[in-house]
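Handout, tutorial session.
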Amino acid sequence: MFTDLEGRWESYRVRTIPVDVNLESGDNFGFNFSPTGERLDEPFEIADGVIIPPGTYEWIRYSVGWEFAAKRKLNGRVRWGFGSFLRGNAQRAPDRWQLDAFTARDLSSIGRA
């Protein structure tokens, strides 16, 4: 939490992780949520002509995800974030997939004589 000189909160974020499971296989899955707040004392321009008016803004963001162990041919993590943001809604798409180096090398030779 950040406060101004009078001790009033200006912004906060509380990350709560009620589910975070590590499996024996090395895989992991979880769920978290983050209550967040911003208090603006004056208008805030986030882009040319886009102004957020003064006021108190509070929202909750959620995230669910699965991480596949590095030992797998297809490994990496998939995470989806969603929830409210300021006075609207926001979503975050799954962020990455990767193939391990051995598989990538094998796949690069497909179709070659």
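The second record follows below. Compare its token runs with those of the first.
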Amino acid sequence: MTSNAAEAKTTDENGRIAKFNEIMSGIDMPEGFLDWLINERAFFTTPASIRYHGNYEGGLFDHSYEVTCSLERITEGMGLKWQNPSHRILFANTQYVLSA
């Protein structure tokens, strides 16, 4: 996975959901997790902040996506391997989702 800020920003919820599904491919998600993110947390439409970076509709996902991509680049650059590949994505995303 490679990313830059322009690549991470999409214009609609469906585009963000597609990116999420792409990075989660091959990773078992709990049943109903995606619906929970959409309906209970509005993860794909919520701003990351009301005053700072990501203060636009979908900023929370865009920021989380960028953090996930950065974490993956650092991990690969250092030659490290995740024991459980889903942890890199969960680490980057759940810190925001669970605090909402």
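Points raised in discussion: The chain has one domain: 5-97.
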